[in-house]
Amino acid sequence: MSAQPCNVCQTPLAAPIYTAAPQSSLSSLQRSMEGTLEVFCCAACGHIQTVELCDNGSFYDTEYDILVKSEEEDQIYAVEHGEKIFRADHQVALFQRKLALPEGARVLDFGCAKSATMRRLLQQRPDVNVHLFDISDRYVGFWEKFVSLEHWATYTIPPAWQGSFDVVSSFFSLEHIPDLTTALRTIRSLLREGGRLYAIVPNTFTNTADFLVADHVNHFTRTSLQALLATHGFDLLDLDDHSHRGAFVVTAMRAAAPDRAPFAVEPQPLADTVAAAHRLARFWQQAASHLGDFESRHQDAPAVIYGAGFYGTYTANHLQHPHALRAFVDQNPYLQGSSLAGKPVIALADIPAEVELVYLAVNPVIADEVKHTVEAAFPNRFHYFQFQP
Question: How far apart are CA 143 and CA 131, in angstroms?
C-alpha cells in the first residue's frame, strides 16, 4: 500500500504520530464516526493531517448540519466582563477590520454553511455584494432570508462568477477539504486580479482538541499555510494567530502566476513545528489516563462537565463511572435546555447542590479563566480537573 500524500505539498507521509483507540473518533459536531483516527505530520512542510474516515462529499451534503436549529443559533467565542460574544459577531468585526472593504465590494463566502457572518455583514454594510457557495443545499432556507437567488450556488460554481470577486472568504471550511489543490485553484479562479483570500482555520497548537476532530482532515500550521499559499498562486499578506482565539486568520492576495515551484520551508521553523506536533500527540495519548487517575481519586463523587462542546463530549466518553455525571454546564443559551450524552445541559447557576467535581472541558488556554468564573459563583466548593498540555 502506497503512503498517503500530504494534502498541502503531496510529499508521502510517514507513519502516524497518533492513533486513537478504536471506535473513539468524534466529528466536529461531536458525533461518533466509524473507523480509527490516525494523525500524521508531514516532514516536508509541517502539515498535520488526519486520515479520511468518510466520503466527504456525501458527508457534508447529507450529514453535516451545523447550527441549523434556528437563524440566531451560534457558538460563544468569548465571555468578557460577563457579556457573551458570539462567534459570528467577532468574525464580522475582524473581517471588516482586516479588509477595509470598498463600497460595493463583491464577496463570496466559500463553503459557507449557514453563513451567519455574511448575514451580519449585510446588516452593517448593505452595500456589499455578498454571494454564497456550499456543497450542500441544506442551508438555502437561511440564505434566502438575506440574499437573492442569483447570489448563491450549491455543488457547482456558476461560470459567470469566474474572476469577479474582490474577496473570497472561508470561515472554518478549509480544514474539512482533502483536495486542497483543487480548492485553492478554484478560489484563485474566482478572484479578480489583486483580489484577496480571507480564511480562518483552526490552530491546533492553541486549540488542542482540533487535533482529535475526525472530520478535520487538515490541521494547518504556520509552515504548512505558507507552503499551501505560495505553491498555489497567492502572496501571503498576513498570517495572524492572535486576533481569533484558537485559530489562524489568513489574508492573501491573488498573485499574477497561478502555479509556482514548490515552496521550501525554512529548516528551523519546520523542525519546531514537527516537534510541537509530536508533543501534542503525546499529550493526547496520555489525556485519557490523566482523566482516569483523577476520576479514581474521587470515585463516585457527583460531577458536572463544564463545556458542552467537543472537549465535553471527549471527557464524557472517557469517564469510567459515567453514572456520577449529573449534567453539562455551558454559558451558551442555545445549548441550555438540550441534552448531551444523555445528560442535561444547564446554566452555571443551576449546578446541583450535591456536585463535588467539575471537569473543565474547555480549551486549556481559557481553563484558568473558566475556573475563576466557577469559583466566583461557588467559592471553594469543587475539585477541578483540567486539560494541561
Answer: 10
The Cα–Cα gap between 317 and 381 comes to: 25
Q: What share of the chain is helix, strand, coil (3-state, %, to 5)?
A: 35, 25, 45
The count of C-alpha atoms lying within 13 angstroms of the C-alpha of 189, restricted to the half-sphere facing its C-beta, is: 12
Question: In sequence order, what are the residues at sequence separation of 6 or more whose Cβ sits closer than 8 angstroms to the Cβ of residue 312?
Answer: 30, 305, 306, 328, 330, 340, 359, 361
| CA distances in angstroms from 300 to 293, 306, 325, 356, 360, listed in the order given | 13, 18, 9, 10, 18
Q: How far apart are CA 53 and CA 56, in angstroms?
A: 8
Closest to 309 (Cα-Cα) out of 89, 84, 75, 59 = 75
φ/ψ of residue 385, rounded to 5: -115, 140
Per residue in 60-82, pLDDT (tens digit) is 444 444 444 444 445 776 667 67
CA distances from 54 to 36, 61, 344 (A): 11, 12, 30
